[in-house]
Amino acid sequence: MKIADWMMAILAVVYFSVQTRAQSVKPEFDRIGLQDGLSQVTIFAMMQDRYGFLWIGTEDGLNQYNGYEFKIFRNIPGDSLSLSHNHIRALYEDSKGYIWIGTRSGGLNRYDRKTGRFTCYRHQPDDPASLNDNSVRSIFEDRDGYMWIGTSSGLNRFDAATGKFKRYSIEVPPSSGVTNPAVSSIIQDKKGMLWIGTIRGGLARLDPTTDNFIYYRHDPTQPSSLIHDLVTALEIDGAGSLWIATYGGLDRYDEITNSFVHFVPDRDNPNSLQSERLFSLRADAFGRLWVGSLECLSVKYPGSDRFDHFSNEPMNPRSLSDNTIWSILIDRAGTLWVGSHRGLNRWDPFLRKFPHITTGTDALTHNDVRAITIDTSGALWIGTSGGGINRFEKDRRTVFTSDPKTGLSNDYIMAMLTTRNGTVWVATQNGLNRWDSARGKFIRYLNDPSDNFSLSGNLLSSLIEDDQGNVWVGTDAQGLNRLNADGTWTRFEYSESDSFGIISNNIHSLAADSSGFVWIGTNRGITRWNGHFFERFAIGSYGGASGPDAIALIADRRGWLWIGTLGGGLICFDPASGRWIRLTTADGLPSMSAQSIALAGNDLWIGTNNGLVQAVLPDTGKFFSSRLVRIKNYYESDGIQSNEFNGGSVYRAFSGELFFGGINGFNRFFPDSIHDNPFVPPVVLTSFKRFNIEYPLGTEPSLADHIVLSYADNVISFEFAALHFANPARNKYAYMLEGFDENRTLSGTRRSVTYTNLKPGDYVFRAWGSNGDGFWNDQGMAVRLTVTPPWWETWWFRSMALITVISTLWVIYRLRVAQLLRIERIRTQIASDLHDDVGATLSKIALFSELVRSGVHEMEGQSLLDEIGRMSREIIGSMSDIVWSIDARNDTLHHLILRMKEYATGSFPARGMTVDFEADMTDDGVALKPEIRQNVYLIFKEAANNILKHAQATYVQIIVVHTQENLTLTISNNGVGFSPDVMSTGHGLRNIRARAEKLNATLTTGGEPHGTHFSMTVAF
After folding, report:
1. Strand order in the sheet with 645-652
2. Domain coverage including residue 399
3. For the chain, what is the domain count?
4. What does the pLDDT read at residue 990?
5. CATH number at residue 847
6. pTM
7. Among candidate residues 886, 912, 943, the one where a domain is terminated
8. Which of 3, 181, 259, 1008 could crosslink 198 through cysteines, CB 3.0-4.6 Å?
């Protein structure tokens, strides 16, 4: 069995128990029209899809309804993927989930919810495999998956595999005046036979396996033939019976006799069918058949030929919006939908649970009901504020007002009481009244200022009878009275000095318990009469001298006292132990003022200033916590007279029926007949918005399973709905965004949520919902949400960044290694230079020193000493050059030029040579690598030493020119020239070339005819 079938079975059982007290139903409709967003008010077709949405076809557009708003589909001129025509005549959802729409003249449409697109099938005059007419009246899918289409020109079968239509000809007698009758309705019975209702062609039965027809038509000579050949609707009820709506009445097909049972209007029988011209049929889960006609909506009850009728009542907003009923639907929650000529009508049999009596013909004389009682004859007495008393006896109402004939002292009734001996007492704003049934009038009891043993005051508030038969009468500000069994009065008035007296003269409520005690509720708390004196009780934070404003009192079978307060909630007090609990709005009460209380088994029913409450108490004899009390609230939408009830206006009959009065009449009900609707509604996503604008998902929101957004989409909103249509304003919701919210959020009736600045990542949005009676869909709906990161936070970018960092570190490492290698080479070169120059020179010095010490000739010794001094100075110079070259502070072009100039101006003049040193010294910010600086300087020095040793020049010119890219050093002299060949074999020049190669420098030399010329260019 499908879940929907289980749900309907549960609904049937529950609703059957609701209906056991009365066979007939009295729907009160909610009207839905243009003001609610409906595209147009003439409704020809309705259906509910597999997701729970309601689809409504009108004369101007197709509507999808989620209980809160309508989504409207219309033809868009020039858009072939939109609805082909706005006038909708038929709707159907197939087994694959496609929505099929029949239009008046635009052909057949198939709506794909996944793409949001319509496919149109039209009549093509030159294609016999196309639809036979563009006016589509009925659509049906058989158990084999074929689609059957009824048009104004007959019957078609659509094969989805081929996309082709097969046309069927329906035979009609020549007298019908038509050649191929319009097909108004198609249905399949349990044997697989297709029944086709036609316009003026009667009823046909088609065997789809053989394509053979059997026809049923009206035959005036056969009373049991079809009642009329103009068939408008077909329906098969739960028992398998076929019902046929026609323009001549209603027929039921009797399969055994192969005949028809007729139901036609009978003007002498108000419970017969009301109209001959029928348009729609629908069977419900309870065996009833709903019939829509030209004149009204009718319902036929199972096992009976009785019909009840419902029509528009101009003064009743709960009646149908119009009498012409084109379509009927019963949704999976049991709600009845009626499509009329002027709007949509909705009735939920579970919604208005409480029968409501108010003013009107044979009803109340005033809506403000202050007191209720039932006398020993079973007559119901209703006391009103300003309208006197209304007494109901079976079908008769009697009104008592303050006039001499009735003897009633006042029309403002404050309390009523039927005593155990059958006497009816009435407390008014002007005295007490006793009904004398023998005389048919009231006997008055009024205050006599001269008689201290009369009633203490005339402004009365409450009545109760104790176990001795005494009647206690509370006044508004003049104390408490007791009418004794012997007819005498006893007054009890507040005295500050009397600690055993009543606590206040303002008596609001009275109650008697099973122990014979009388409880008195006042504006300063409660007291108890124990038969001898009044006892005072401190409740919670209230002391004995001050307490809750007790406007309602009732004692239960355990001796606990329930106190309804004005603004202090509901209190349960155990006098034996002094323990108490308080129920407030925090525990679920709709109001802090509990005006009236009634007991029903283990439940309390409380009338408040904001609804009627059912408090289900824990089934234990022990005192309990308020957390164990289950609260269920009912409001005006449930059928209660209004949300405001009056203090003390409550009565429980011996039958168990409860009566509650308020400012708009009264309700009467049996507590065990009040049932909640157990339907668990599906929860769907209805909208997704980005920056408060609808975001296209590429499919209907309810079908979306994954939404992908950019990190820049930092304001998003989800809207969702529980698809229970009875009273959507009462549906409750909860939601959670997994990955963001730690727990689900109960949002009450709010069905949307907005999130901002979500971090990139994957989330799951979930929503749950309940129907108006608190039955939750714990599975709810879920949709995945992915927020993509910015490009700099994507995996590929992070991977590239990681690779780049690693590569950079590797390059830095390699550069550092290369730098270390260069430094090592420099060190090696320095060591080599030291070894070659300094080491060789030191060896010579050591040798010359040995010669001097060996005693050479004085002249030779002096020469050796001079040579030792010269070589020592060379060593000092070489060491100075090495130290200079490795000093990082000298790594600029400016320092190089200074060093060369210092050497030139110190060496050449000492040999009698004039030196001209030209260089640009203004730019001192050009940095040089150590190896460039060292080698350039040593090349310069080698060239200068060659001039000093061999050129025999008198004039030397040195020019240093540099750009941002390179340096050019030019040295020339006027000394003796030499051949390039000889020059190329010199040891000094070999050193110069070797160093120039390290620098990739360009050398130019010349030695003839006059002096020498040397030039070197090196790139920085």
Report:
1. 356-357, 665-669, 658-662, 645-652
2. 365-430
3. 4
4. 80
5. 1.10.287
6. 0.76
7. 886
8. 181
